[in-house]
Amino acid sequence: MKEYKTITEIAGPLVVVSDVSGVGYNEIVEILMPGGERRKGQVLDVSKNTAVVQVFGPTAGISTTQTTVRFIGETMRLGLTTDMLGRVFNGLGEPKDKGPKVIPKEKVDIAGLPINPYSREMPNEFIQTGISTIDAMNTLVRGQKLPIFSGAGLPHNQLAVQIARQAKVRGTDEKFAVVFAAIGITHEEASFFMRDFEKTGALENAVLFLNLADDPSVERIITPRLALTTAEYLAYEQGMHVLTLITDMTNYCEALREISSARQEVPGRRGYPGYMYTDLSTIYERAGKVRGSTGSVTQIPVLTMPGDDKTHPIPDLTGYITEGQILLSRDLHRKNIYPPVDPLPSLSRLMNSGIGDKKTREDHKGVSDQLYAAYANGRDLRSLSAVVGEEALSATDRKFLKVADEFEKRFIMQGAYENRDIETTLDIGWELLSILPEEELKRVKREHIPKYMKKKSEIDQKK
Amino acid sequence: MAKEEGRIERISGPVVEAYLPEARLYDVVRVGEGRILGEIIKIVGTTSVIQVYEDTSGLKPGEPVVSTGQPLSVELGPGILESIYDGIQRPLKVIEEKAGGVFITRGIEVPALDRKKKWDFKAKAKKGDKVKIGDIIGTVQETELIEHRILSSYEGKIETIASGKYTVEDELGSISFEGKKYPIKMYQRWFVRKSRPVIEKFPPTIPLVTGQRVIDTFFPIAKGGTACIPGPFGSGKTVTQQSLAKYSDTQIVVYIGCGERGNEMTDVLTEFPHLIDPKSGKPLMQRTVLIANTSNMPVAAREASIYTGVTIAEYFRDMGYDVALMADSTSRWAEAMREIGGRLEEMPGEEGYPAYLARRLAEFYERAGRVRCLSSEDEERYGSISIIGAVSPPGGDISEPVSQNTLRVTKVFLALDASLAYKRHFPAINWLKSYTLYEGGLSEWFAQNISSEFGPLMKSAMAMLQKEAELQEVVQLVGPDALPEKEQAVLMVTKMLREDYLQQNAYSDIDARCEMKKQYSMLKTIMKFSERSNGALDLGVQLKKIQELKVRGLIGRMKEITNDKEFEKLDAEIDAGFDELVKKSCQADKKGNSYERI
């Protein structure tokens, strides 16, 4: 281990150390403050005798004369063990709850290695989240990365928690765990998550990493990687099915930009670094299923779109990497509809591999497509009727309008603790479709109509 | 060039600077104790700047750097087909065995071609034959579908050659030239950044039949042509690319997943072996080469993947095959250039992309073309490379540099449209924004091979679709019923064109690929319906009656038709339906008139 007292420059989160030798790229350093306090950092750039170190934590108090920098000689590693389940850590992986120290079974580089595309297995196991708009129309499957695109003030956290609470693969009793990474969220939000995990007993199968809004922003670069390293360990070494929630990726990208500008790099779009796509991919691509292991890593990152703008670099680059997106709509939220998932711009790219006979139900695809088309048509007609008046619409068009309204009220809207199984969801779908004349139902299979559609009279009878 | 050893001086992400006084630009080097692969991309004095194809964590200044004295090259020979490579032609299957797990660990050295497998070589050239570079000296049946033609890499006289079972490293014989003897092997190397020479390039006159109606009919791509598919995420770029890879009428497909999603590559990997080539009944994989450098794999290898892919494509073209090259996505490639450019502290051009972006894109697309392959005078051989590149513009806005520079060099523009995708209209190719510049060159082929009617039919269908866009604006304001019946009829027909012609189900067994002849029959049917309804309207038939015609439902299901007979039947039914309407209308007219008279 080498120690130096040769800091020559301090700028933002970066420290330049001179006259060093044998320092490795990405190596971890310890910074000993004059008062005895220790901080961690990582080597970002190294040349023959200078190293640029990114400090995790505030750089306040670091001086060029009285601060010691110690090079550890290895890259950032995380100690891993199954005892981590049920524990809460800070953004650097140190225990934050009052529990004992974790004794690791193995130490792993948190940067992770890319999964060989040849070794991947196609994700195709349906995860029932109990939320109709996701299960029926944007189906989540094991090993998928499906982000929630939200905006400030929308209930994405409630939705994320509800998914974590309810998600399960039907008919199996396999080991299941939740890894939760909070990046730059407020104390209030963090305690909301903690309370909910404790209340529902989910905490004992969960590992939490919390980097809060007042924690150093540079730590935010590390937090999601700690979470994913843990998730990969639980999945591929312990054979568990791991659901990873990461909130909020927007804060992560802000931290990335901060460091990039401190390094005086050439900025890309809106000041975000040009390598942000590659950087984000090293987080998102750590979801998947691999051959020869029973476990899987499913990722649900949450991000808030600045100004609800889907073309902002953060949601844009995310959308190019992830397999779809769940988009929350401010309009639906204003109408008091929870969860305000707008099915039209939402998408699950792996949906088709996880639904159908034996996986969900044979009519799933048809119902989903038909509902989608009907709702899209209804929404178009809604804006048309705002201009020409509802009276000017044909009888069929008025039925589509009604479907769109009912769809929002009965299909999209559900309780925060309401866990609908896929059959219930699809049955509600059929009820809505029964409003339409049968010849308009072009996307469902003809033979499914008599089999699944409950006649209005039957529904009334049931009531 | 002798091998040269130097020392690392600086490391910053994938860029390493090293002291290598006699290095040559673009030579491949081995970096550090772990001997990871890199390429020299800049030389300043005695310092070489190296882009490294693997993760550089843990590298230290002072570690050795060894130059191989060779630029980045690929191995070309039997064993390429059915392979799946990373961006620098390392077979991922072998990497898995060597790494002993699902992750790609660092510093794995594996040959691109299997050194142990024995191939059955059939000599075509004989002892004493004079051969030129590019002549076929023998063949290997590489897969059931593809005969691998071994091309001579030397000019000279064949001294010895023998058929038999060989590995790629074995000597099959020798060639002498100006007193020197050269061994004949089944494989050769080629530098990826240099295009392989040809005798002549031809203007494109033959269409690349993709089996996708919207493309083949309205925006045809030529064999040897270039096309770009820009679109925001979720608009179906990858599905379109994959459909083209599966169904276009080329012998070889090279699919480059450049900065792609891992699971998407897995989808390709699991699906292609199960897909059956419609002509031969053999798995499609037998004529496919996959290059997968997913987004989280090293960025420098992503930059190289495009060159690796196109060089392999050129090699098969030189054998006289038609090759389709899919690059998904060139934006990720451009971003890799930007990222490396940024690390080199180059002065950036537009939006941070390097100033040479336009040149690189143009160079890449220029490697497409239909050519006369390099060979002796008497050995005439033609091959082609068609390049179809996906572009992922940020926010779907194609005013950005990658899209714009791509549009300048590609001849077909297939505009993917998110709003069509939202409507579940697939392939979500916008027929108003897309264009092709091959139409003129290909019209003769269509007239000769399909029908002289095809061009005019296509034009009138397109005119109607354009008319629809105008009418839709009016409809938005006043509702459809306010239009005259003739214009409502246009909307009726364009709805059929959109739903029953342009939309194509990539997941349907029958509809996923639509033959040219069938496309013509389908288009003819709809346009006939249009013509007859216009005629009927003139004779006073109400539009409502036409809309109620039963035959409309049959047209809606014609995608599933598999033989000509059924189209003839459909044609007859249209006539019958309209004849009936016209007859009734005339009778009603007579009655009406007679009432009036009373």
Description:
The complex is a heterodimer of chains A (463) and B (598). Chain A is α/β, with parallel strands linked by helices and 463 residues long. Chain A folds into 3 domains: 2-75, Thrombin, subunit H; 78-351, Rossmann fold (3-Layer(aba) Sandwich); 364-462. In chain A, 33% of the residues lie in helices and 23% in strands. Chain A is elongated and about 80 Å long. The mean pLDDT of chain A is 90. Chain B contains 16 helices and 28 strands. Chain B is α+β, with helices and mostly antiparallel strands. Chain B folds into 4 domains: 4-72, Elongation Factor Tu (Ef-tu), domain 3 (Beta Barrel); 119-189, OB fold (Dihydrolipoamide Acetyltransferase, E2P); 202-437, P-loop containing nucleotide triphosphate hydrolases (Rossmann fold), CATH 3.40.50; 454-591, Orthogonal Bundle (Bovine Mitochondrial F1-ATPase, ATP Synthase Beta Chain, Chain D, domain3), CATH 1.10.1140.10. Chain B is globular and about 100 Å long. In chain B, helix 5 crosses helix 6 (330-343), helix 7 (357-365) runs parallel beside helix 8 (401-409) and helix 13 (516-538) runs parallel beside helix 16. Chains A and B meet through strand 5, strand 11, helix 6, helix 7 and helix 10 of A and strand 1, helix 1, helix 4, helix 6 and helix 11 of B.
pLDDT averaged over residues of chain A: 90
Helix content, binned percent of chain B = 25-40%
Distinct helical segment count of chain B? 16
Instruction: Count helical runs of chain A.
Output: 14
- Contiguous low-pLDDT stretches of chain A (5 residues minimum) are none
What is the strand tally of chain B? Answer: 28
Q: Major beta sheet of chain A, specifics?
A: 10 strands, mixed
Low-confidence stretches of chain B: 594-598
Provide the CATH top-level class of the largest domain in chain B: Alpha Beta
Do you know the CATH topology of the largest domain in chain B?
Answer: Rossmann fold
Task: Give helix % range of chain A.
Answer: 25-40%
